[in-house]
Amino acid sequence: MSEARPTTFDPRGAILMDRDAGQLRVGISAPRVMVPAEALVTLCAKAGEELTVALGHALGEAIGARLRERFESAGGDGVRGGPFALVVEHLAGEVALSGLGVLTAERWGKALAFVVDHSPIAHEAIGDVMLCGVLSAAVRVATGASATIVPVAREGTRTRFLVLGDGALDGVLRELERGTGWHAIVGDLNGGAS
With a threshold of 0.85, does the pTM exceed it? Predict the structure, then answer.
């Protein structure tokens, strides 16, 4: 079995501008449009949560497809077989190229959290809704496994999202509605350990 894997994320040449056609592309993907973050937040607020999640899914699917292609073309076992830190680095690079902020990941026992800092859309709750859609679709397309992403804390310009598997969503949402802090929720996901 091949041990080949992608190298560190390299954004050079990732965004291509065709001035003659008046188009932007990320890699070989379909043309992209630059939109002011404030306009995107306003549009999402007016569209509502369902359409905002759908928009997030469309963005996330493109991110996940680029990740999957990059890891599969390097040989090896794709994204699921890649080193965790390298997969996160590539996901973070794609999120940054999309202009959505700085992504990191935290492992808390069995729990996984994505942290997005400095997102130009997350100053409003609808921005977190869109980021949930982006991240869940990116994970699904890149790995072939579904995950539910839930925002659990905002600290200044940083939003923390828990990555949940089947069966955990209802309990987490109940705890959030009760006002339970994310540290306690993570402890519960890890079997009561804090």
Answer: yes
